[in-house]
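To close the chapter, one final illustration. This time we ask the reader to focus less on the individual chains and more on the assembly as a whole: which components sit near each other, and how the overall shape emerges from the parts.
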Amino acid sequence: MKVCKFGGTSVASATQIKKVVDIVLSDKERKIVVVSAPGKRSSDDTKVTDLLIELANRALNNEDTTEACANVIARYEEIAQELNIDPKIIETIRQDIEQRVQSSKEDEVLFMDSMKAAGEDNNAKLIAAYFQSLGVEARYVSPKEGGLLVNERPARVQALPEGDEQLAKLKDEKGIIVFPGFFGFTKNGTLRTFNRGGSDITGSLLAAATDATLYENFTDVDSVFAANPMVVDEPEAIKEMTYREMRELAYAGFSVFHDEALMPAFRKSVPVCIKNTNNPEAPGTMIVSERKKPSNRPVVGIAADDGFATLYVDKYLMNQELGFGRKLLEILEDEGISFEHTPSGIDNMSVILRTEYLTPENEKRVIERVQEELQPDHVHLEKDLSMVVLVGEGMRHTLGLASRAAGAISRSGASIQMINQGSSEVSLVFGILTADETRVLKSLYDEFFK
Amino acid sequence: MKVCKFGGTSVASATQIKKVVDIVLSDKERKIVVVSAPGKRSSDDTKVTDLLIELANRALNNEDTTEACANVIARYEEIAQELNIDPKIIETIRQDIEQRVQSSKEDEVLFMDSMKAAGEDNNAKLIAAYFQSLGVEARYVSPKEGGLLVNERPARVQALPEGDEQLAKLKDEKGIIVFPGFFGFTKNGTLRTFNRGGSDITGSLLAAATDATLYENFTDVDSVFAANPMVVDEPEAIKEMTYREMRELAYAGFSVFHDEALMPAFRKSVPVCIKNTNNPEAPGTMIVSERKKPSNRPVVGIAADDGFATLYVDKYLMNQELGFGRKLLEILEDEGISFEHTPSGIDNMSVILRTEYLTPENEKRVIERVQEELQPDHVHLEKDLSMVVLVGEGMRHTLGLASRAAGAISRSGASIQMINQGSSEVSLVFGILTADETRVLKSLYDEFFK
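The assembled structure is written out below.
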């Protein structure tokens, strides 16, 4: 039994939804179908989720919502008409959306969650109705009925394992289950959306809970590429990679999956396949626990991401001060700042972090506290760093790889600000100036893939 | 005004002490002379300090001390006779040592400190007497009179800055000051020895307190070499290096100076010169705050040291757990284990530490606590690691250096276990298997010096 998830562009229009239905019906194993809200039909289109946010904001500001509401419903109506579905479904959707708009706005976060979730929820109802209109045994299952339980506010939303038992029952149902992505319910029935990973998480959770043989994630690309196609010309497709490789690539700019989305599938070792709704015959990219036969390339992918900074601290005889590193990390932790790497010399330590965590205020406080509490000789913060990550399970056993990589970076004319190798067996991280990112990525790609 | 310190082999015999006196008298700036205890005269000889430890142990065990005591005094007597010094000095030394042997053994650590310090203390008295016998204005100054104040037990012995004012007065004395290295006195007059860095610290403290123009450290080599002469054939001499370079090299096996020994001179920017008592004409190695003209080599030295281990911890989504790294370091800190480097991947973190800090007990506790408190997917400890450090102020600005280094390591057939670059501007650290250390060092030396 397979769980298939279809992203926003895969369910953006009647044409796309027909492809989805064809894909699902072409393989009897495809039983649970997780759907996103209708996405963009062209690059200048607006996603339904964004229409819903606009509608929610008008409602919160006590502005007239008639037109904004109509804009949302029009998207579903157009799809339903083109698919020849009984117009009753539009009445259902209209009532649902109007009910949400009228609901309590006391807690603005929960109101917004409920409004945004309407995109996926109603698309699942509509797609289930389309299956039925074709005479296929299929039904919409809401996350409340299905048992997708999430934790209470204000903690960041995460699925609760207590829901798994009920979710597992979905595999024993007859016919196809159409399940909306992106949200779940707390034990007392409050709707909360996943703020990271969206519908991908829903699919991954269902695949794990039902012990699916495969989690198929349909999107609009044939596969994951070995490097960013916006930077490198026609990069190679990755046919197969491990979870670990995917994780390391996702960290530095490979946006196919959010970190957390893969977690449930990973924990149960359910293989994942990334496929293209518009070209379902293409093999796609398989993500597995372990490769059946080793790859002939030591590096499977190269990712780069900007937005990093270095906090540099220097103190004579630092390495004799037990607890120095711990205290430094504690100051960052007190400010809620995660760190990525901590390269260290004898008398100095750098903490590489993402600039998104920095504000002028917490930056100032961190520097001041380091000065006061650690009494360093120097402390300063440098920004405009990018991280380039080479990923591959075979790297550890390949002699000379670091040398080839460092050589390729040097040839591009960039200077290496940081090298981090030694913990992960599957990645090698270089810190470079953001200004050098593009040429470094090209040079590394040429070295390892050409 | 210069402070000169002479190491054990430089003051091991009458012949050597004559060289010391010649050196001191050949430059009027050489005013404060710090001396060690008589060291080995040949490779199978016993240092006076070791004779004193033997004597102290016999005294602590209530064994007969007559012969052990005579062995110590015989060394001084032989020197005094050969130097034709008034035999009264031997009486002074005999009384001093007998007094120490008779002193309270209630606190064994303090008794041992006092016994060991007799080596330097009496050698200073003897050398001062020799200067006087030559008609030179010179006198022995005890650390108590001079003002070399140290902290109280049980904290690790360190000099107190309160002593500096009195020490500074030494520069205004007439004639030559002969000062014993290796120990100081607490405010209430208890003798304590420096357990790390020995007499080098005394010289460095005096040079700093007296604002010396130079701290000359006389030993038995012409200079510091760019690599270990036991491994690399005839390595290049280093003419000049910075404090930072010295620190980084000292960290990984360059045993010319202990870390802490340079600290006082460093804080006051007193330049240090390492010279050879047996070849005082050789220019030696200068250690300075900043080079006057940049070196034409990016790397000034390559050091290697074994005895490292890696604690590896792996947990899916680790980098989203704020405080994970801090907690890991805290567990080590609770066990009193310092760490050297912490390379990290996306979902993993390694802590490189010195195996000398590990015991079967604390190793077991660390692993258990990591498992319980951090709930990792995996944790394990790997030993038999060596660190190889390339050091040079010019490294940061040299493109392709990491690539050349990694290439040289690969060519030696070794695999790189860890690379740490990015915090220190003057060093690049590679982790390798200890079994590969010799060939890696040779290969790196050939790459950067041949």
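Chain A touches chain B through 64 residues (CB under 8 Å). Chain A has a mean pLDDT of 92. With these observations in hand, you are ready for the problems at the end of the chapter.
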